[in-house]
Each structure stands twice: as structure tokens, then as C-alpha cells.
Amino acid sequence: MSFEIPESVKVWSQFFHPIFMWVVLALSVYALYLGIKIQQTRAAEGEAKKELIKGRFNVRHYQLGSILLAFMVTGALGGMAVTYINNGKLFVGPHLLAGLGIVGLFSISAALSPFMQKGKDWARFTHITINLIVLGLFAWQAVTGVQIVQRIIEKMA
């Protein structure tokens, strides 16, 4: 029994990964904002601190981080799957390698959560450092991803 994916699905599926990952990038920037609000809450005192605590930035950051981890892994796997389905191979280049690195770094960052919950400053510092690197790589991925999409569109014309 052979299952052939319709050509229209092959063609248009190539655009799901870039659109999805742009959403993930936007959510990542929002997670950064929440992280900054957590730091502000830690540094605040008195009424300002009470007001910031009401924002539950720590809970929202933690929950969004969990969602982002799932989205990052499935987005990377989805991008590789669509590339393989359409080309019969993966293109081992900067976009693929940086994407795999991002998934690995993001996983390490998430794994630090139990240590941060126990108040370990080294874990918090490492988490912040890794995520800033991830965000920088992710922004670069957006640029290279647009270049890849442009090549796909050129081939379609």
C-alpha cells in the first residue's frame, strides 16, 4: 500500500513552518517581557512590589515557557519533515544546524526550572544567558528563513 501526498499539500505545507515559527518568535519576545517583569518584581519594594506580584508574571512566564518548548520542538521537527517530504533530503546548512542548536539550548534552559524554583542564582543566570542566545539565534533564523521562503517562491513561479 502506497500513500502519495497530493502535490498541492506538498507545495503549501512548505509555508506552515515559517508562519508557525514567526508566531513562536513573537511569543518568545513576550516571554522575554515576562522575564523582565519578574526581575522588576524581585527588585521592587513596598507597594510597587505588591502591585507587580498581582501580575503573576512568574506563573505566566513558566507556563509560556512550557508551551514554547513544545512549539519549538514540534516546529523544528515539522520544518525538517516538510523539507524531507518535498526534497527527499534535508539541507545541512546554517539554518538547520542553528535550528537544532536552538532546540538543544532551549531544552537545557527549561531543564533549569527546578533549580530556579529552589532559588539557585546560578540556574537563573544560566537560564537568562541561554535564552538571550536562543533569542538572538532565533532572530537570525527568521532572516535566513525568509531567504529560504523567497527561494521556494521563485521555484514556484
TrEMBL record:
List membrane-spanning regions: 15-36, 64-85, 97-116, 128-149
Q: Which Pfam families match?
A: DUF4079
Q: Which UniProt keywords apply?
A: Membrane, Transmembrane, Transmembrane helix
Q: Which residues form a coiled coil?
A: none
Query: Which PANTHER family does the entry mention?
Result: OS02G0122500 PROTEIN, PTHR34679
* Protein name, entry field: DUF4079 domain-containing protein
The record lists the lineage as: Bacteria, Bacillati, Cyanobacteriota, Cyanophyceae, Desertifilales
